[in-house]
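Fold this sequence, please.
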Amino acid sequence: MKMKRLILPLLTAVLFSACASTVSISEDVTSAEIIQRAQEAMDRNRFKAATQLYQILHDRNRDNIDLMITAEYHIAFIQYKQKKYNLARDGFNGVLDYYNSPDEVFLPQHFKRLSQIVLNTIEVKTNPVPRKSKLQERREAREQVAAEIE
């Protein structure tokens, strides 16, 4: 019984400390390695760690627009996965802003298309089309049949 009393608080402390940790990456880690670690964090639903990694990628590569777009897209996608639709919408619109220039043809096109797709999905999720009830559908069908008979 004493062992259970000791283990439970210890497990709780370890669990909360793991959730609250911040990511630190040494300066010699490449952009590709940061992206790989962020994707691994996403695979484990560690959204906070993945966001931090993509933010590090963004901050370290301000002179590389491709990597900045990569980071911004993935941060917005994480917000979408967390159902933070307003933040995600802002993020995807920010990504699309990069494509409003003559240099658009030199940018990675897949992030443009993916941003548009997710923005459309957010629009559907946040502004659903009201469905008619079965009763309303039957009434309208009867009314239509009655109008055709007359």
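The domain at 27-149 is CATH 1.25.40.10 (Serine Threonine Protein Phosphatase 5, Tetratricopeptide repeat). Confidence is low (pLDDT under 50) at residues 1-18.
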